[in-house]
Model the fold of this input.
Amino acid sequence: MNFNGQHLIIGAVQFFIIVLLAPFFAGFIHKLKQRARGQKGINIFQFYINFNKLLKKEIVLSKDATFISNVAPYIVFVTYLIILLMLPAFYRYSLLGMSSDVILIAYSLALATFFMTLYAMDQGSAFGGLGAAREWFLTVLSEPSLIFIFISLAIYTKQGRITDIFYVIQKGAENAFLTGSGSSAVSVAIPFLLFISLFIVSISENARIPIDNPETHLELTMFHEANILEASGKHLGLFEYGSYLKITVFLTVMSLILFPYMAVNLYQIPLAFMVYFLKMIILCALIAGVEIVNPKMRVFRVPNILSVSFILSLIAMILSIRRF
Amino acid sequence: MDNLKHKGIFRYFFNCLTILSAVFFTVLSIYCFKSEFTIQSSFINFSFKFDALSLFFVIFISSLSLFISIFSIKYGDKYDDKPSLFIYSFLFIISMLILVISNDMLTFLIFWELMSIFSFLLVIYEGSEESRKAGFLYFLMTHIGTILITAAFIMLYLKTSSFSFDYYKGAAGIIILAAAITGFSIKAGIMPFHTWLPYAHPVAPANISAVMSGVMVNMAIYGILKFLFVFSSGSNSFLGIILLVIGALSALMGIMYAMAQKDIKKLLAFSTIENMGIIFMGIGVSYWARIENFKSLEYLAMLAVLLHIINHGLSKSSLFMGSGLIDKYTHTRNMEKLGGLSKKMGQLSVLFLIGVMSISAMPPLNGFLSEWYLYISLIGSVFTGNLYMVYFSIIAIALLSLAGAAAGAAFTKLFGITFLGKPRTSNAENAKKSHIIERIGIALPVLLCIYIGVYPYQIISGLNSVIFYLTGGTVNPNPFSAVGAVKIHSFSLYAPAIIAAMFSVLLLIIFFYFKIFASDKKRVFETWACGLDEKNPKAQYSGSGFSSSIMKVFSSFYSSVSEIDFERDVKKYFRSKSVYTEEVNDIVEKYIYIPAGKLYFKISDFFNRAANSANINVSLGYLFLTLIVCFIIYIFIIR
Done:
């Protein structure tokens, strides 16, 4: 892969579009949930309005806050931006595609968690410490399956960069569809298993209902919210936007595993974008559906479901080794 | 010593001497590179050789001891009453420097032993009951290690009938390697032999802990590299797999125990076990690939090993120095008594944060880099298709990823509980600011951490000569080319630089966006506590609370005892006092070492009773029996 101006520019445009769409996806999930519960529901674009409003508000800093409180929101937000810069969504290349290593992505997610939990502990509030402890509890359990998912993808496609990984999957799918060759039970099973596994991980990482409820401020239900309880003003805005970006990252990866279709040239972009958008809407509906039908889970039940995800990704990895 | 006028003269003198000798050895080893010389004395010849591996270790030791000496110029002032510390630490560092350039087994063993003895003297330096206990354990374990290493060398001598390392190339068979690796792993604190490390490293003064954890454990790695990659006869690839598995287990267990600790230095000591495990994993992969002839995999894993030695040394020594400052200015190492230090020690907290990020492998810092290369080599070894290696490298990936996440949790706990929040006791509240020289000593390795993390290409091209010496190949250090392990394409080496650059660009963009569009108003107010008027700073989340949920899930790794003690008769919700105690015991110690110690006492008690029966006839009988046994040995075995 060489440096090509067109790829970089389209990659950058793709990045801006996804960043701008992220609050929409989050809002869409929220809206769906509310409608399913029989509520009238928020405006789909409410999260844009919220973000804008939060920027205009003043910051209330704790007396005990240190430099971490001023730095962490930015670092968390920028880390998610960096991950989005690496991901392809509807175009085969991304701006940081050359350095989009899968392990780097997994560890960048840990970096964001690291700073968010430090922020939580910065104000000396018991809620913050509780949230930080629970967040790491989830991360310790879900990080291995996340890394396993990424590494099985890398082994399955024999590629290291995430842009190349999905391109290879796409090529394979095209070949199988057009010529009927190259498809087997295994090559269908691996993405399927990885999809389920990643779905579980993304529900836990994104603070969704069976594991966490992002809408409450009750201490018994809080994971993510407890971390950012003290945030206000633009700091809160950054954290909130960061969480939209995070779910967009996970949904995008899932959408690419589910149905890899990325444009390889300029003319395919409109169609690829439509397909991407459609996939994201479907996945949002899936997340919302899971959130509606499930009650919240006890904290010490969470390891069970996450170990299911780990086992599934392990099976996928073993299958992808069998493939060559 | 009583003369107050000359107080500190030892400190200045010996720290400057250490710095000078560090510089001297670096210059000497660069100047004499690829040459050798011998110092002859009446009964023993000391021979030295400067090869690429020695040069690497000399530069590593001398730069770290340079930083630590700068740090202890000021830090050491609390030890002025007992200046033996500075003499011992000088000799300790010198013996390590000579150890890595020695070229025959006697020199090696002598300086290995000197290193062990001086570090033992430093462990028992403070003279408390705890340090004497730790010192004894350390002395015992390290000498079991030395016995095994000596045995390995004697076997090598019997095989080649030479003392010089030059004749040992390709001479070590499996038994020799096993003995040597076991001996060296005791020094490195690898899992079944690690028990001494979390006792011995924390009790020494902080600058010595920094040397021991950052530098001394790597001498064991030096020995293992020498044995496996220079002396090995090379027909035993399963040794690599064993190293990989043991390394992975000790990485996971080390960090799991680190998470349970309250003592800052003990946490760091357990984290040393984790990092030694990671280094062992790299050595295992590299050695296995060497025997099975997967060249690029071998080079890459070796790069991961060497980089991790540097990264761990830099971040661990800076963290130990930081913990020394915390200890010095707050008089406690218990993180449950600290908190809010970030306000009192602002600059130290930034340095400590970077060290913590580096050691818990956060991109784009250096700790991530070596762990990343290790992941790439593990994925590469999956691609080799060797049944055993595929199996064990998948296990290793699982354990490593779990350890990586757990390291994040452990070090979030360390930094968050110690530096953030409100001060929990008056110790933390009355913390004083540290001296500038102390902070400079910490800042230098931290800056190197950032440099290696963001721009590793210079270091990698420097390491290539070491990799070439050990394996006969090199890794391409060109930032704009991809690293290829077996079969897998396009793991990009230049990611860290681009990520770091992009990070700062995006931060700038957001900063200016906010300058224009966001409000700048700021108000400082109390932390929200449900509207309650809670003034007790101990109501914050505690360190043991932080790790308890993770420990509960992985409870099979620990043998912890916890109990809540309160007055029974008082009403349930209005207890005046309740005490919670928790004790986390090491399962290896509990199920192997303590029973072994008891067995030893039993056996020696039995012999004691049998031998000292105070009856002259029985004693004479023993004498006769011994004579007969000696005869039998002579006749049937020696002849």
